[in-house]
From TrEMBL:
The chain holds residues 1 to 283 of 360 of the full protein. It comes from the Eukaryota. Residues 11-272 form the Protein kinase domain. This is Kinase-like domain-containing protein. Belongs to the protein kinase superfamily. One of its GO terms (molecular function) is protein serine/threonine kinase activity. Keywords: ATP-binding, Kinase, Nucleotide-binding, Serine/threonine-protein kinase, Transferase. ATP binds at K40. It comes from Roridomyces roridus.
Length: 283
């Protein structure tokens, strides 16, 4: 990948794909080849003083792009006086968030297949000493509109490269409220286990259609997270969910990060290690 350069106008922009905190994401069509990408357009003014966040995102993406089928790769980047442009593989299938919302929840076997795939990508990222820090259904995208499309990890905007031998050096409070782990809220040392916790929340969400730590307000939610207080209720949402799946969620939502399974260990859990169809509920 070349160093950043001024926009060569080799793309034309297409429809809006999504909006984030500092960026909008639009389809970008490469004029010469007609190849389509997703272009994250970041307004330099909006990130003034925090440009390092985007530099960091680019550094992480350079380290892991084109290495794993289930990680959205950076294909090009350039800048104009006002904006930074990051061009990614285009995922036309939308966010996992929208699929959960339209389905209500996932059958257990489908949920296990998705979670297994996401964990293989997380294990890859973690092996490269990268922590994502913002795993949630809005940042998990489907490559195509097909029902069985590949799921991809996107948005490395909050991710960090952890130096070898200096694990758990991160202490800032960042992420998305309902997905942040107890150690993040407490400003304690944090590292790869924060991604496993977030996947515990994602898995719960996939199975039930709602998240585990919903409180009256964000303070109540934070307290529930710090104490690890959640349950598989209301019952009617959990009747068809196996004890193995619940055990998997419990393991990912272990309060002490040192006792939480690693991504590799999560993949060894019976729920993910046995790709047998679990009980499928009647519709
Ligand atoms: P932010 O860091 O501001 O959250 P994201 O990288 O998450 O930005 O992008 C915001 C939204 O844009 C995503 O939630 C998704 O809906 C959409 N998006 C991001 N990357 C892609 C992509 N490669 N293909 C399709 N849509 C994308
Ligand atoms: Mg995002």
């Amino acid at each position: 990948m070349a160093t950043p350069r001024m926009a060569p106008c080799k793309y034309r922009t297409g429809k809006l794909l999504g909006k984030g905190t500092y960026a909008i994401v639009r389809e970008a069509i490469h004029i010469a080849t007609e190849d389509r990408f997703a272009c994250k357009i970041i307004n330099k003014k909006l990130i003034e003083g925090r440009e390092y966040l985007v530099r960091n995102e680019i550094a992480v993406l350079k380290r892991i792009s084109s290495q794993h089928t289930n990680i959205v790769s950076l294909r090009d980047y350039f800048e104009t006086p006002n904006n930074l442009y990051l061009c990614f593989d285009l995922c036309t299938g939308g966010e996992l968030f929208d699929r959960i919302c339209s389905k209500g929840s996932y059958y257990e076997s489908e949920a296990a297949a998705l979670v297994r795939t996401i964990f293989t990508a997380i294990a890859h990222i973690h092996a490269a000493n990268i922590v994502h820090r913002d795993l949630k259904p809005e940042n998990l995208l489907f490559r195509t509109e097909e029902e069985d499309a590949d799921i991809m990890i996107a948005d490395f905007g909050l991710s960090r490269i952890i130096e070898e031998g200096k694990l758990d050096q991160l202490t800032e409070i960042c992420g998305t409220l309902g997905y942040m782990s107890p150690e993040v809220y407490q400003g304690g040392p944090q590292g790869k286990p924060v991604d496993v916790w977030a996947m515990g929340v994602v898995t719960y969400f996939l199975l039930a259609g709602y998240t585990p730590f919903e409180g009256e307000n964000s303070e109540a939610e934070k307290q529930a997270i710090i104490k690890g207080v959640f349950s598989f209720t209301p019952e009617e949402y959990w009747v068809n969910v196996s004890e193995t799946a619940r055990d998997f969620v419990r393991a990912c939502l272990t309060i002490d990060p040192a006792l939480r399974p690693t991504a590799e260990q999560a993949l060894q859990h019976q729920w993910l290690a046995t790709p047998t169809p679990y009980f499928v509920q009647d519709s």
